[in-house]
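Record type: ASSEMBLY
Status: queued
Input:
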Amino acid sequence: MTNPPKKGNRIPRQSAPELSPEARKKTFSEVSLGYTPAMAMLEASRCLQCKKPKCVLGCPVHVRIPEFIRQVAEGKFLEAARTIRETNALPAITGRVCPQEDQCEKHCVIGLKGEPLAIGKLERFVADYERESGAEEDIQPAPPTDKKIAIIGAGPAGLTAAGDLAALGHEVVIFEALHQAGGVLFYGIPEFRLPRNIIEMEIDRLKKRGVTIKLDYVIGKIKSLDELMIDDGFDAVFIATGAGLPYFLGIPGENLNGVYSANEFLTRVNLMHAWEFPEFDTPLHAHQAIAVIGGGNTALDAARTALRLPSARRVSIIYRRSSEEMPARHEEIRHAREEGVAFRFLERPVAIMGENGWVKAVRCQKMQLGEPDASGRRRPLPIAGSEFDFPADAVVIALGSGTNPLIAQDAKDLVIDPEGHIELSDADIQMTSKPGVFAGGDIVTGAATVISAMGAGKKAARGIHDYVMRSA
Amino acid sequence: MFNVIAKDELAPGVFRFVVEAPQIARKARPGQFVILRLNEHGERIPLTIANHDEERGTLTLFVQAVGKTSLDLSRLEKDQGILDIAGPLGLPTEIERFGTVALVGGGFGIAALWPIARALTAIGNKTIALMGARSKNLLLLQEEMHAAASEVRVATNDGSAGMRGLVTDLLDRVIRDEGPVHRVIAIGPVVMMKAVCALTRAHNIPTRVSLNPIMIDGTGMCGACRVMVDGKMRFTCVDGPEFDGHLVDFEGLENRLRGYLPEEQQARERLTGGQECRLDTTGAARSQP
Ligand SMILES: Cc1cc2nc3c(=O)[nH]c(=O)nc-3n(C[C@H](O)[C@H](O)[C@H](O)COP(=O)(O)OP(=O)(O)OC[C@H]3O[C@@H](n4cnc5c(N)ncnc54)[C@H](O)[C@@H]3O)c2cc1C
Ligand code: FES
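Status: finished
Output:
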């Protein structure tokens, strides 16, 4: 099936098989099973191979989409994998977690009349095929440069920069605060969406390239930036510490037992295995009625994780706008609905009610949509006198995160904006105002996406390479 | 892996560990803590750094065997390893010349006060250590405190050592009888810190307390360690562990410390086959800073 030109619109978008809602809702197994080779080739054959591909412009790291799609259509899966990896170091991950409907697929021309090409699913297929084929990456390490680069934080930004810098011949050490590399990919995004072995494999791949990962290293505490650069001889530092500081609502009752930030709730389960308590030591209460506040990916991850806990009877998402405004990936919203998460739109919590120190209900207020706000979404306005109590014994707050303060607390010479983001003095190369110190990912942009963090990691790697080679 | 290089039992169920962690030892300051995880199935718990030896590259940690993790830890022997130790975390204690500083330690909190006492005395403060425990055999670090502080007073609930009564009675007496106290640092069970703050508020003496909420990451990422201070939400692991005691919402803290008692009980029973004593619900017994 080589490059069938005009059939595009006749073959429907191939949906990848999934575990049925019944089969999956009490397990942490991955929901989407991905394409078979035949399905992938069929789907890829829908691509029109546009001369001026818009999809590529929609991709934050400009994956050469038509090229890899053509290779898939021709059955050259490993070649396709190489094409993707030129610009995207973690395709098995982005294929699963990118909001494709807002990026590449949004610009796909066949999407104008029908359903866009399933670029994300194809990316995932290619990456999985490569992994399962056991094809070893032919690593041609560049000659050693004798330059040492420190990377702070092992999330997607840090991991991506590490890979690129190692390939350029630099000695790379990643310092990670937690006992596990991966950042949000590991502690935030649940297993049923992103299996752990995929993250582990990407980490192993980095180690094979010679990257050292030091866990339990909280930079700013155990070492300052200056100590890294002056005492330890690192020629440059890349700060990729993410947006780890959870926001709370600032309403009464938030300190009751049974109230969690989404980060805490997800970390207990994903990183600490609380659902396997007492096999694992970290506990999580046997909550039955869990209310999740928010409408982003984090809220959906928390809700679907809650649903999978053995004790859970009812899981609801409370969101102050309507379904159209939900920023979460569409697939997650669909999956959550299928699994039985109840959505409560146009309601906002005004207090959390307790009894004996524990959550008993969420006091909500009804909302209506007004004029569009700065984000272009219609502004939710409270309806006076509409308060009511929604019973719950746990509340998970998923309102996003501010930036982690540890580095800023310690390095007073970095320029930090009022929200705590590190300011860049040269955004093209991700360099901060402090010489030799670069930054990227959520710590610069605020909570964003995996792919944008990776893009920043790539840019930083180029910037750092130029910087250290110039000062050679 | 972090090696245990010495271990001894100071009081029934209270253990002192010296572990090898040279990088952390180099940066540790009084008032800071570490988060450790014993093994792949372990939880992350905070422990105060009671001493650090930069030259030998070691940390001294105290553990009271009450919860599953602290029991597991108490069973570790010399030359065995702890899988993860991250630190030094939290902001260090302010070490300045204040004048006369009363250091009030209850039970296990004494371990956390010890390095603070040394540092404050070393720069010329008059330090009065007020140590309280239920009974003589639970009094920790008496010798060390005598060496570290300018003066030491002891109170026990049963009168088996020092004055019979509470450590707050000692403090009350010092404040009334011994001239101005410029600062109080109180570390111990929440009830004790609360009582100390009530007393010092009446006398207008600046008082620092070191809080011991439940923690997970210790880097500000999860918010489990949140407490209300002066009506604002603060994360103990990054903004603390010390706060102005007159502004802390102790009731909120107490409530959150009770949050996992049933699960702790369950885990402990599993470990000990149900042969266990009651849990101290004040948080006094938590193996935390
Ligand atoms: C629950 C959840 C679901 C999400 N779902 C999606 C999704 O479906 N699609 C998507 O595109 N995006 C999603 N996101 C957003 C995405 O995960 C982030 O934008 C992305 O991970 C940011 O990458 P990063 O490398 O900048 O930071 P992070 O992934 O946050 O990694 C930062 C790392 O730095 C470490 N660190 C912090 N401080 C220090 C220090 N002082 N010293 C050493 N190490 C330190 C942290 O422990 C962490 O490991 C989600 C986020 C969450 C929380
Ligand atoms: S322990 Fe997680 S934020 Fe403090």
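Annotation: Residues 109-122 of chain B form the longest helix (14 residues).
Annotation: Chain B has nine helices and 16 strands.
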